[in-house]
């Protein structure tokens, strides 16, 4: 297996790059989706969130009120740390299991683990490559406002709740510049895929033992 850790700030283009790699044949795991699974009704995580934040963060149908919890945690560092301490261990455990399962099913698979908080949550799966998507903050805020309906204050708060691009670049093997056109991003993703295939071919041809 070839395991890629894909990270980057909010609305920096991680999913866009991941989708392109999937078109080339990669398997995609998405930490945001896993973080939703571990807080479904009936889970220990959801109960822990209710214990920490109160009934106001649960809807009448028993599901997590994501909007309400987001309003709380993106303007309060201490509250966000409490939420992270509940959700991140469960996501780490589930992602570890799913990565192992993907490897068991296809030892030659290329797995892209899209994990927004790779740096913040100190995700330390044995990545073959760490890829960082990077766009200027003003582009992130514009995308959040125009495409996801956040108001500019909320959008800034979300960007500011994450580490800086400098901190992400410090752990990157490859940086994809996502501040330009979509075609420019896709071109870099395509070039990355060529490099990955090359690495895999070399690894296969390397005499073992
Ligand atoms: C606060 C919650 C309920 C808001 O839900 P909402 O549906 O509005 O956002 P969603 O989960 O789709 O996240 C969107 C983006 O916000 C950013 N983000 C989410 N959680 C965090 C966090 N704890 N710290 C910093 N940024 C975050 C990420 O860039 C993410 O891609 C939700 O984000 C959450 O439960 N967060 C804690 C779990 C977590 O850290 N998830 C991120 C990957 S593990
Ligand atoms: N050059 C570019 N590269 C990538 N995305 C771009 C570019 N220009 C505009 N966009 C748009 O920006 C948005 C990026 O969203 P995307 O879901 O890929 O980001 P993300 O980092 O996965 O977000 P999140 O952190 O919320 O999961 C998309 O709507 C995409 O079309």
TrEMBL record:
What name appears for this protein in its UniProt entry? Dephospho-CoA kinase
Any keyword Nucleotide-binding? yes
Q: What class of enzyme is it?
A: transferase
**What reaction(s) does this enzyme catalyze?**
3'-dephospho-CoA + ATP = ADP + CoA + H(+)
InterPro entries (UniProt xref): Depp_CoAkinase, P-loop_NTPase
Q: Where does the chain bind ATP?
A: 11-16
Q: Which domain of life is it from?
A: Bacteria
Q: Cite the EC number.
A: 2.7.1.24
The gene is coaE
- Positions the record marks as coiled coil are none
Instruction: Give the chief site where it resides.
Output: cytoplasm
Check the record and name the NCBIfam families matching this protein: dephospho-CoA kinase (TIGR00152), PRK03333.1 (NF002879)
Compartments annotated for it: namely: Cytoplasm
The UniProt entry, under PANTHER family, shows: BIFUNCTIONAL COENZYME A SYNTHASE-RELATED (PTHR10695:SF46), DEPHOSPHO-COA KINASE-RELATED (PTHR10695)
Q: Which organism is it from?
A: Agromyces tropicus
């Amino acid at each position: 297996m070839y395991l890629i850790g894909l990270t980057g700030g909010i609305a920096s283009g991680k999913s866009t790059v991941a989708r392109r790699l999937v078109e080339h044949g990669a398997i995609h795991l998405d930490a945001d989706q896993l973080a939703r699974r571990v807080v479904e009704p009936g889970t220990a995580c959801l109960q822990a969130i209710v214990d920490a934040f109160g009934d106001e963060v649960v809807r009448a149908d028993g599901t997590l009120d994501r909007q309400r919890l987001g309003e709380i945690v993106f303007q309060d560092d201490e509250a966000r740390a409490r939420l992270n301490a509940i959700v991140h261990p469960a996501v780490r455990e589930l992602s570890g299991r799913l990565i192992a399962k993907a490897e068991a099913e296809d030892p030659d698979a290329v797995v892209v683990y899209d994990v927004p908080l790779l740096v913040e949550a100190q995700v330390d799966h044995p990545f073959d490559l760490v890829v960082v998507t990077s766009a200027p903050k003003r582009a992130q805020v514009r995308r959040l406002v125009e495409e996801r309906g956040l108001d500019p204050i909320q959008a800034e708060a979300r960007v500011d709740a994450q580490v800086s691009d400098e901190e992400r670049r410090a752990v990157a093997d490859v940086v994809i510049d996502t501040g330009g056109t979509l075609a420019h991003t896709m071109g870099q993703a395509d070039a990355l895929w060529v490099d990955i295939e090359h690495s895999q071919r070399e690894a296969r041809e390397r005499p073992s033992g």
